[in-house]
Write a structure and sequence with these properties.
Distance between the termini: 29 Å
Helix content: 25-40%
Number of helices: 12
Structural class: alpha/beta
Radius of gyration: 20 Å
Order of helices and strands: EEHHHHEHEHEEHEHHHEHHE
Oligomer: single chain
Number of strands: 9
Strand content: 15-25%
Length: about 325
């Protein structure tokens, strides 16, 4: 069943909160160093700093996840015995899983796992949440065409994924792999992704410039079949893979950033393509990123300087689906 939701407006004021690996956790415990990092003019996001910045500037992702889980948690097929197992795909630094999803699981849960292909984010999550019992974080590309690890395949009652799938090229394989993660006895899947973000258009312009094409011209982050997919196409695709009782809700909204600085910091924390750019050029490409965003109409108001607001229109898709018990 397909639902259309009303326009939702998200006004964002980003505060600092989280991280990756022992050195990242140490940074969080030293606010003066974090403040210095936030004010850095170079925006050189090396492997150590990127999880720190993402953990600080993922308020939008957390806001979306909170809205989704608050509505759909009651739909999920929680076990009567409370021994639920859940895996979160594209878990990043783990805060959405641990702060938003996990509180909805019975305290008697059997296993909670977060997976992500970003080794620095997983290193952070392992350190930051090391005191959590029965919680694991693992490096895994959900779009892999290789066989899934034996300790993951067919092991979970529930799969969640928030704000991840639009970053993956091999999206069909990713959905097939997600289906394989669910136990043969059956389970369910809660997915949230963005079929459209202005980010896609900005990146495409950057890709085709003479300055940045040598670095990212060959990397198509947003070429997957789920980009701009219609609801009925998405429903048919999920059913072809094997999912049943598919429910889809599309909504259209706006992210608003209160200043150019806030906009740039959030975008820098989320930009996967920065790893392909020499660190000394990070500030330059982010300046070009903001300039392109302005040309594409992402500036929400006309005042000059850092007081100017920026907005990003987006399409959000929420999917709830089941894997029914498999006959042997």
């Amino acid at each position: 069943m397909i639902h259309k939701a009303n326009l939702q407006i998200h006004k964002v004021s980003v505060n600092s909160t989280s991280v990756d690996g022992t050195r990242h956790v140490a940074l969080l415990n030293k606010p003066h160093q974090v403040k210095h990092l936030q004010r850095s003019q170079t925006l050189q996001l090396d492997a150590m700093h990127r999880p720190v910045l993402y953990h600080q500037h993922n308020a939008i992702q957390k806001s979306i996840a909170e809205k989704v889980i608050s509505k759909y948690a009651k739909w999920m097929q929680w076990r009567n015995d409370g021994l639920d197992s859940l895996i979160d795909v594209g878990t990043g630094t783990g805060n959405v899983l641990m702060e938003i999803v996990k509180p909805h699981i019975s305290k008697a849960y059997r296993r909670v796992v977060g997976i992500d292909m970003a080794s620095d984010a997983i290193a952070f999550a392992k350190t930051y949440y090391k005191s959590q019992r029965k919680v694991e974080f693992k490096i895994l590309d959900i779009g892999t065409e290789n066989e899934l690890p034996a300790d993951l395949i067919g092991q979970f009652d529930h799969v969640t994924s928030f704000n991840c799938l639009h970053w993956i090229n091999n999206q069909i394989q990713a959905l097939k792999n997600i289906y394989q993660l669910i136990r043969p006895e059956g389970g369910d899947f809660l997915l949230c992704f963005q079929p459209y973000l202005p980010f896609f258009d900005i990146y495409e312009v950057l890709q085709n410039t003479s300055t940045w094409s040598p670095y990212i011209g060959h990397i198509d982050y947003f070429g997957g079949p789920l980009q701009r997919i219609e609801e009925d196409e998405l429903s048919n695709l999920l059913e072809e893979i094997g999912f049943d009782n598919v429910e889809i809700e599309y909504s259209f909204g706006v992210h608003t950033y209160q200043s150019e600085k806030e906009f740039k910091e959030h975008m820098a924390a989320s930009c996967m393509f920065l790893k392909h750019i020499p660190p000394q050029l990070h500030s330059t490409i982010m300046k070009d990123f903001v300039d392109i965003a302005q040309r594409l109409g992402c500036r929400a108001s006309s005042p000059s300087g850092n007081k100017c607001k920026y907005s990003l229109n987006f399409t959000n898709a929420v999917v709830y689906a089941k894997k029914l018990p498999q006959c042997h």
